[in-house]
TrEMBL record:
Region (Disordered): 117-136
Domain of life: Eukaryota
Protein name, entry field: Coiled-coil domain-containing protein 25
């Protein structure tokens, strides 16, 4: 299909006058249009670079705005800008990840601290309950009345020295 269009275009070129531009005839083929545009861009870029080098400067000046150069230079600048934007986006993502990790770590530390505080409070409560139970047991032991008789065996005879009241 492409060959047929190309052959018919060549016949038209042969039949037309020598001064006519062949690109106008081949403008219906998309590949030719793309090649023509790229050729024009390269010519503009070549003219621009020659104008820079013809000034006598040994240093090549890279334009800082797209308006200063041709389309080729502006595309280079756009690529550089795109790369710097990508780097900035990656830096932002890395910062967000680091902040998220820090927040996670901080949350984990806080939960551990809260758990430790709860455990220590539970242990204190258990100790307080044990002490209360021990006090209650001691109070019960002191409150109960026992009938006791104390015997003094130092004299050899059994004498009742003290007897608790009934």
């Amino acid at each position: 299909m492409v060959l047929a269009k190309g052959q018919s275009a060549l016949r038209k070129v042969e039949n037309e006058k020598e001064g006519s531009a062949p690109f106008k005839i081949l403008s219906h083929i998309p590949e030719c249009v793309a090649v023509q545009k790229r050729l024009e861009e390269l010519k503009e870029q070549q003219k621009y670079l020659q104008s820079i080098l013809s000034r006598g400067d040994n240093k090549i000046k890279i334009p800082k705005t797209p308006n200063e150069g041709g389309t080729g230079v502006s595309t280079v600048l756009l690529v550089k800008q795109d790369n710097s934007l990508r780097r900035a986006d990656m830096k932002k993502r890395n910062i967000w990840k680091e902040n998220a990790e820090k927040a996670k770590r901080g949350q984990e530390i806080k939960t551990k601290q809260v758990d430790e505080i709860r455990r220590s409070e539970e242990q204190k409560r258990e100790e307080i309950l044990r002490e209360k139970k021990e006090r209650e047991l001691e109070e019960e032991e002191t409150d109960t009345v026992w009938d006791r008789t104390i015997v003094d065996k130092s004299y050899g005879e059994i004498e009742i020295v003290y007897e608790t009241p009934k």
